[in-house]
Design a protein that fits this description.
Blueprint lengths: L1 H38 L30 H8 L10 E2 L5 E8 L7 E3 L2 E4 L3 E7 L9 E2 L15 E6 L3 E6 L9 E6 L1
Parallel strand pairs: 1-4, 2-5, 4-9
Antiparallel strand pairs: 2-3, 5-7, 6-8, 8-9
Bound molecules: copper (II) ion (CU).
Length: about 180
């Protein structure tokens, strides 16, 4: 019984897997083509103003984003920040105000604007809303750090003389996504 049955079964299995393979191959062919279309983007660099060499700017890639584009670098920094959309261009302003304790990240745990682009020599003034408990402003690289306070109207300022990308966070709420960035050019 089984002896006569098994060749049939096997051939069924074989042809099924052959079909499956065929299907996979077809799929792979499709997605390969699609990827090619999407990845070609030479004009993606306009998006972030980064040094954008050629391909790496594409968001999908795990590739070497670290090349120089501030955009890709910030994308990762802001991966757990729910109020980040883009870098707000404030180049040409002498002073820019960022509120501390703006709505976002599940409460008043955000900076607003989250990310700004300024010219060298610009002073950034952080102003506390008084909401969401105690906050501070602490640069990841140690370039500046404010007091930790919940006082409404408290201010802290820093003048950015050196070009670069400065990532900062509120120390107690960093893990909630209370993060910001200043891109100085
Ligand atoms: Cu905070």
């Amino acid at each position: 019984m089984f002896d006569s049955d098994s060749p049939t079964r096997r051939s069924v299995v074989l042809s099924t897997s052959a079909l499956a393979l065929g299907g996979l191959t077809a799929l792979a062919g499709c997605s390969g083509g699609g990827g090619g279309d999407g990845g070609g983007g030479e004009d993606t660099a306009t998006d972030s103003g980064g040094g954008g060499e050629d391909t790496a700017t594409d968001s999908g890639g795990g590739g070497d984003a670290g090349d120089g584009g501030a955009g890709a670098e910030l994308q990762e920094w802001f991966s757990n920040v729910d109020n980040y959309e883009s870098v707000v261009d404030e180049t040409g302003s002498d002073q820019v105000t960022v509120s501390v304790g703006a709505q976002g990240n599940g409460g008043a745990f955000a900076f607003d604007p989250t990310a700004i682009r300024v010219s060298a020599g610009t002073t950034v003034l952080w102003e506390w809303t008084g909401q969401g408990a105690q906050h501070n402003v602490a640069d990841e690289g140690g370039a500046f750090e404010s007091d930790l306070t919940a006082e409404e109207g408290f201010t802290f300022e820093h003048t950015f003389e050196e070009a670069g990308t400065y990532r900062y966070a509120c120390t107690p709420h960093r893990s909630l996504g209370m993060k910001g960035a200043v891109v100085v050019e």
